[in-house]
Amino acid sequence: MFNEFFFQIEDYLVYCKTKGLSVKTIKSYEQSLRLFDLSKYVEYRDYVITNLLMDTGMRISECLFIKTEDIDLVKRVSFLPAQNTKGRKDRMVYFSNEMNLQDIDVGH
Structure pTM? Predict the structure, then answer.
């Protein structure tokens, strides 16, 4: 199963190359994160949203509809109600410990 995942990635990279699409790398992602001025609320917010999207794989619309009461920082999970998901089903999205410690600061 793990090897199948890498073959899918390889197929995707080949597809992107044939279509002339650029593929972002981890290095370019990290470089782009450094462009945020974290001393400004709006940029800090965008930085957290960007990291949350990359960490969880949730859709932008799902992320934008998250409410404070939908987040459990102890269990590192966010509840996404059915009306905000593509499949119209409730779902739980887990985020990493690094995301929890570095980026989520409800009082910022």
Answer: 0.65
